[in-house]
Amino acid sequence: MRIIIFIIIIFHTFTLAFSNDDNIYDKVDLFGEVLDKVNKEYVEEIDQAEAMDAAIDGVLRSLDPYSAYLSPEDLKQMETETSGKFGGLGIEVGMEAGVVKVISPIDNSPADKAGVKAGDYIVKINDTQVQGKTLTEAVDLMRGPVGSSIEITVRRIGKKKSLIFNITREIIQIASVKSKTYDKKIGYLRLTSFNENSGSQIKTEIRKFKRDKKIESYILDLRNNPGGLLSQAIKISDFFLEDGEIVSTKGRQKSENRKWFASSGDLINGKTLVVLINNGSASASEIVAGALKDHKRAVLVGESTYGKGSVQSIIPLKNEGAIRLTISKYYLPSGKSISEVGVAPDISIEEEENDFRIDTETDNQLNFARKLLAG
Q1: pLDDT reported for residue 88
Q2: I need a surface site. Which of 13, 193, 195, 299 has the fewest CB within 10 A?
């Protein structure tokens, strides 16, 4: 019975924050009654710890697709992934209309090599149907020992039949920034995530390019970049702007109502900049792309971005877990929100080849950008 009381207290804490309705106390009593009956009469004995986690997670997930409860194990996993090295398939996933959706595959990860693409919907993991499961449950199904195999079934827009991928789990190494020179005069920067060191890595690569007197223009590739730290999005946007607003956030708390502005000093000295985006560009990627577009500092090429316009904070809990909670929404310099809309490219170029791979000969979007700069 103690477990039921504890869950009621947790639920009570959340619901008081959500409503001033006097009837909320009746709802708390009803919640306790339901849990008590489940505990006593359900056909199988329930795991009370799991029931607690599910109750907490249910409250958070009812808010939006991005808020969630992180158990101590989940929090450790997230911290491991943030460190830049972890075992898995190498895909960033989210939930859309009750279905697990691939936000983006990580470059050169097992999922990327197998052909999984941003926008794919995962409908089955091995023999288990995914629909109806929470995002956490689906992610748990995809986790496993390094070297073990997994079969995922996806539905892809434009394809009549489901696609099946057999993937072997590997240690995922995340290189945040990659660079190379194209056509001897184009500096190419590929940013795959917004980690703590992304800004310093971008600056280092730009300085290398500047030492090459032949570099006349730049490409910033944000495709399949699921985002990351807001601070890094602001810093990287500032690298290419002389002044003006970068992004603003608005939340329930006054402390979350903030604006960030660019400081003087364009690292590439006003040289032409093309930004590549696609459906896998989300969150921090959209801040950078949107700010550069609004200030007419860059030409955006590719496809509309994902449309994630909210900021989440990781709030620690006493049990060494945490909650990931949406605390504000961000707005582009134009005042527009990109939630569920995304940032549209200036020049729309869709993927053409079935075997399309970023930064290869099949990459028609990059090829177009190169021709645009050459012209």
Answers
A1: 80
A2: 13
